[in-house]
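User: For documentation purposes, I need each entry recorded in a consistent format: the amino acid sequence on its own, followed directly by the corresponding structure tokens. There are two entries in this batch. Please keep commentary to a minimum and don't merge the entries.

Assistant: Recorded as requested. Entry 1:
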Amino acid sequence: MAASDQDLLEEKIQTVRRRDRRFSRHAYYFVLDALDYTMTHFGRDQLTGEDRHVGGKELLVGIKEYAAEQFGPMAAIVFERWGVACSADFGEIVFNLIDAELLSRRPCDSRLDFVEGIDFRELFAEKHRESLERIASPQR
């Protein structure tokens, strides 16, 4: 991304944050990065290889996987520091990015796609327990 593109992105995110101060600017950048991650890992049509639209439920899976890679067991704490308490908050971030014309949507997309999603605190705690068990178990 060229410097001017990065400046434009930062300006748009700051504009969003002036309207909605609930979430850190890092949360917005994370969602954009998680969308790229999701598109790379899940967002291609298996038959044609073409990019396709990623819905809210798919994006939540991508967010979960990307956060686990980036932050490990600290992911839930990072999200809390950014003001993200539940999966519905990611829906708010996504729709703020849509309002800023940084993302597009289809008529079927809804904030409700992000509700009843993932309990990040429990998910990352479980991932951490699994990692500790793997480390602690004797090698065969």
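Entry 2:
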Amino acid sequence: MTDELRHEIEQALVDVRPYLAVDNGDVEIVRFEESTGVLEVRFLGACKTCSMSAMTLRAGIERAIRLKVQSVRRVEAVA
């Protein structure tokens, strides 16, 4: 992943992080697979065990990133 792409993704996460922080959680970038457009992220803090994390991933994190970063096609959570 290029530094520019990482920066674009981090900028997209700026919009999401305050909502995660309210519940003492966060998210970090793990890796990006260019051939498939899949971004892997890891939940941190309370988000790791939250029952709503799947919804947060799709409706919050993935949506925010895909709106701003064209090369990301899907976001997956990894342990």
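Summary note for entry 2:
The first helix runs from residue 3 to 22.
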